Amino acid sequence: VQEPEEKKIALELLETERAYVNRLHLLDQVFYTELMKEAKTRKTVPEEVVKMIFSNISSIYQFHSEFFLPELQKRMEDWNCNPRIGDVIQKLAPFLKMYGEYVKNFDKAVELIIAWSEKSPAFQELVADIQKRKVCANLTLQHHMLEPVQRIPRYELLLKDYVRKLPPESPDRGDADKALEMIFMVAKHSNAAIAEMERLQNLWGVYQRLGLEDDIVDPSNQLIKEGPIQKVSTRNDSTSEKYLFLFNNMLLYCVPKVIQVGAEFQVHLRMDVDGMKVQELKDTQFPHTFLVSGKQRTLQLQAR
């Protein structure tokens, strides 16, 4: 007898969940536990660092191994008399918000692993030793750590497929639809957390290049565009190399520093976006030029 499509997908969910719990076990009970023991006894790496690397992996592991996997297993054993997984996934969804913290911390964790592998030979040796074990399947710690980051999108795909294949009269119809909606919201929530983190990281990078001018550093700013530009001097018909940063609220007109120690640019002028006008010029001598005029002053600029 051919298994119904939706059951095949539910079984795939169970299989991947089993493999996933093994991966979480490796991260929490092997890597984290052994590195922590090393940190406590031999002080080769600060305990704080190990905690920062693994973030809240213990909670994630416990949730999946003690709750979600057993529930899913029970469901699949009773499938013939009770063909449904929607209700179990609804219970799962709110807990997936725990991933926000892990995902947000991921880049930092990888940086710490690299930094401490250079700083502490004992740390590097222990990581390498665990990576050589059969259970690691020749993959690095970083690779295993990526798995929780990819898990929520995987749930989303499997569940979408499951809902698509459900016959209209299935008893799981309502629950599965609702579960998918919940998972979708959580996935969006963690994507937003990643996007926000990236925005702040990029913004910080820009502030460093500008020499951290106090009145410019503001976490709510959004960088829209940046790039080199030529400043046209009508007095002596020449151009000079400048650099612009356009934020949502201001335009920074900068000069690249010759000696790049610390900051890369010096801010020469700050123009408020509020009340700013841009006007294209038809200048045969200087093509692609335009005027930017603000409350502060007017600049004649030439793009490439």
From TrEMBL:
UniProt domain PH: residue ranges: 222-304
Residues covered by the DH domain: 5-193
Keywords: Cytoplasm, Cytoskeleton, Metal-binding, Phosphoprotein, Repeat, Zinc, Zinc-finger
Main location: cytoplasm
Pfam families tied to this protein: RhoGEF (PF00621), SOS1_NGEF_PH (PF22697)
Location(s), subcellular: Cytoplasm, Cytoskeleton
Signal sequence segment: none
Keyword Coiled coil included in the entry's annotation: no
GO process terms (BP): cytoskeleton organization; filopodium assembly
GO CC terms in record: cytoplasm; cytoskeleton
GO molecular function ontology, one term from the record: zinc ion binding
PANTHER family from the UniProt entry: FACIOGENITAL DYSPLASIA PROTEIN, FYVE, RHOGEF AND PH DOMAIN-CONTAINING PROTEIN 2
UniProt-recorded name of the protein: FGD2 protein
Name of the gene encoding the protein in the UniProt record: Fgd2_0
